[in-house]
Amino acid sequence: MRLIIAFVCALLLAGCASPDIEDYAAMEPELRLQDYFNGELEAWGMFQKRNGEVVRRFHVRMIGTWEGDTGTLDEYFTYADGSKERRVWTLVKQPDGTWRGTADDVEGEARGEVAGNAFHWRYTLRLKVDDTTWLVDFDDWMYLIDDKVMLNRAVMSKWGVELGQVTLSFIKP
Predict the structure, then answer these.
(1) How far is it, in rounded angstroms, from Cα 114 to Cα 99?
(2) Hey, which residues does 32 pair with through a beta bridge?
(3) Among 149, 90, 92, 69, which Cα is nearest to 117's?
(4) Strand, helix or coil at 173?
(5) Residue 130: which pLDDT band, with cuts at 50, 70 and 90?
(6) pTM for this entry
(7) Which helix (H) or strand (E) element contains residue 11?
(8) Could you tell me which of 58, 83, 84, 60 has the C-alpha nearest to residue 73?
(9) Residues 6+ positions from 164 with CB-CB distance below 8 Å
């Protein structure tokens, strides 16, 4: 009986494992952040609670500029309720091919990797909720569909408990 319980627990834990970036190494088209996030882009997105309820919708205008392996992504958010936000990311490609990123509302550094058509990065965001600021973790995956479209799905959590998901569709003119 103990063997069966151990086997079932192992299967459940394996089902919770997230994909590895190398799973996408052979996928095309190949994503080069410096190419896709260069110039003007637009994105449309939403935040869903963990039960699937959509609670926030938004549009993003983005301008990406690069000097060598350092990029600046200037993001302008407009939410369905009319509120606005701005985030400026600085991305730096590391000698080992990984990426590090910073923004004013990011705690520490974002760290990411690219393989094939995918970009995976993790970071902690300072999120304003009412009169307080929460530190929430993002597990963020981006997938290049073609030279114009990228899809983005991020899981937002606090203390290891999923709060919800952010879904975006980027379009390059």
Answers:
(1) 8
(2) none
(3) 149
(4) coil
(5) confident
(6) 0.87
(7) helix 2-16
(8) 60
(9) 47, 48, 49, 50, 55, 155, 156
Mean pLDDT of 23-44: 97
The string of DSSP letters for 61-80 reads EEEEEEETTEEEEEEEEEET
Beta bridge partners of 158: 161
Q: Centre a 10 Å sphere on the Cβ of residue 25 and count the other Cβ atoms it contains.
A: 13
Q: Tokens 């995918």 identify what position?
A: 118
Q: Which of 126, 119, 123 is nearest to 111 (CA)?
A: 123
- Cα gap 154→165, rounded to integer Å: 6
Q: Is 11 exposed, middle or buried (0-12, 13-18, 19+ CB in 10 A)?
A: exposed
pLDDT (tens digit, 9 = 90+) per residue, 77-102? Answer: 999 999 999 999 999 999 999 999 99
Query: Quick count: other Cβ atoms within 10 Å of Cβ 15?
Result: 7
**Dmax (CA) of the chain:** 61
Residues 6+ apart with CB under 8 A from 45: 57, 58, 59, 60, 152, 166, 167, 168, 169
Question: Which tokens hold the place of 77?
Answer: 């958010």
* Residue 21 backbone dihedrals phi, psi, to 5 degrees: -55, -35
